[in-house]
Amino acid sequence: MSEQELNAAEAANAGAEQAAGKEIMPSLEELLRQAELQSQEHHDAWLRAKAEAENARRRAADEVEKARKFALDKFSGDLLAVKDSLEAALATGGNASIENLLSGVELTLKQLAGVFEKNHIVEVNPLGEKFDPNCHQAIAMVDGEGEANSVAQVLQKGYLLNERVLRPAMVMVTKPRGD
Fold first, then answer.
1. Pick from 47, 69, 122, 125: CA 20 to 30 A from residue 139's CA?
2. ∠ CA 57-62-63 to the nearest 5 degrees?
3. 164 has which bridge partners?
4. How confident is the model over 6-46, as pLDDT tens digits?
5. d(CA 38, CA 40)
6. In angstroms, rounded to a whole number, what is the distance separating the alpha carbons of residues 115 and 118?
7. Which of 130, 129, 136 minimizes the C-alpha distance to 160?
8. DSSP character for 146?
9. The pTM is what?
10. Strand order in the sheet with 136-142
11. Sign, CA torsion 152/157/158/162
12. End-to-end CA distance of the chain, in Å?
């Protein structure tokens, strides 16, 4: 074989290998089409995830609004029984004796205390305790027996709702000695 024939055979071999390589390796157009399809799939998945997140946000906002709107639903229902008792007492008119009215008011107060307990409202009566500005509102300082800066008199009880001050107790506090 001559050198020219050898070069021609090598070129033919190289062409055959190249042709075989084209069959194994997809064309650039095919790669681009696959990349575009994959890109579209990712875009669609992103749009679905975005819509799902927006729907979850809307549902959460609706639930928060319902919770805010109906938060007092149970408490209000419990208070209706207390109101009914007070109306029943007033409906008796002047026919009830003082003892019966007093008994009815005591029962209604017990009913209200039950509603408070059920709804985690705790009464604060700090008589004799150390003054705490977080739970008590001092109205005045008075001379008195006992430890200085302690509650000498409770003018109005305080209340806690789930251990948070709902209303501070209005109190009078003993003066420190020597003032």
1. 122
2. 100
3. 161
4. 566 666 665 555 555 455 788 999 999 999 999 999 999 99
5. 5
6. 5
7. 136
8. S
9. 0.60
10. 136-142, 169-174, 151-156
11. positive
12. 128
